[in-house]
Amino acid sequence: MTTEKKSFGLPGYEDMELSTQIIMREAIEAGIAVTVLDRGENLIELRKDGRREFVQQATKTSKDNYITPLLMENKAVSKDLMAQAGIPVPAGIEIQRDEPLGGCLPQWVGKTLVVKPKSTNFGLGITVIDHPAEMGELEAAVRLAFTFDSVILLEDFVPGKEFRFLVLEGETLAVLHRRAANVVGNGISTIRELVDSKNKDPRRGDDHEKPLNKIILDEAALGFLKAQGMTPDSVPTENERVTLRGNSNISTGGDSIDYTDVMPQVFKDLAVRAAAVFDAFICGVDLIIADYQDPESPHAIIEVNYNPHIAMQCYPYRGPERRLGKAVLDKLFN
Description:
Blueprint: H1 18-29, E1 33-38, E2 43-48, E3 51-56, H2 67-73, H3 75-84, E4 92-96, E5 113-117, E6 127-129, H4 135-146, E7 151-156, E8 161-168, E9 171-179, E10 182-184, H5 191-198, E11 204-205, E12 212-213, H6 219-227, E13 241-243, E14 255-258, H7 265-277, E15 282-289, E16 299-305, H8 311-314, H9 324-333
Parallel strand pairs: 11-12
Antiparallel strand pairs: 1-2, 2-3, 4-7, 5-6, 5-7, 8-9, 8-15, 9-14, 10-13, 15-16
Helix pairs in contact: 1-9
């Protein structure tokens, strides 16, 4: 792992989303003309040999049908479609905002589960309860999810490591383990001090301007610490890893660790099957595996994502960098 200063951005375009800058840099190096149509929307035009392609946020292209993102953004529908295709997904229920909770919440008390809005991204509104749930935390999780959507999902918690598979036109090109926001103790510093130190890593920034996002000790993190009997002023022992959130999104401070070369092909193929359900040109498939080294290990796909953020695979926290920008351009122009 290295933390030396490195320029991730494209000079003159650092205000744009990093994944878009990656595509632009690769295009320039390949002799593809680049025109920025809308900086704020990260919308660019690419021209080569009389051909023209429009790309937004690096992975929104003409290769995907309009219906593809609509299906993926609806987590209830996308899960049903995958289940119909024989793809393992977590069991669960759907709840409407105006639906009485008295009849459904008690059945989840004492269980492990995930509560999330039907349509959201970047881990927003998601609560992971990986211990026997109490009614109070269930109600709090439901309230949080309803602030993001009028329909929410309660799903069985699937134990194991979470991986993001990047699928491009029928092939898995990269696999990351997304480790939830965390710090490792030294026996001296408080959790707050460890977070401040980790956030100084030049790879961490805000709003996808860097490959990783800074860790924020917000209400969700404080609640997760409390469940472990800790506060931001607690001092972890040396080499003790303290997890700060239930979700592992990079957007909430998680670590990206490359597993592409060691992931069994059976799981890469499963991600490709999931992408094919939606006829997706490019997408991110989130898969939880109990033991990734065992092809027979219990596993389930918890989400498929349109417009995946590729910077975390191009510049992972740990592992080799993947030239996904070049791969996208090759598919668009070859």
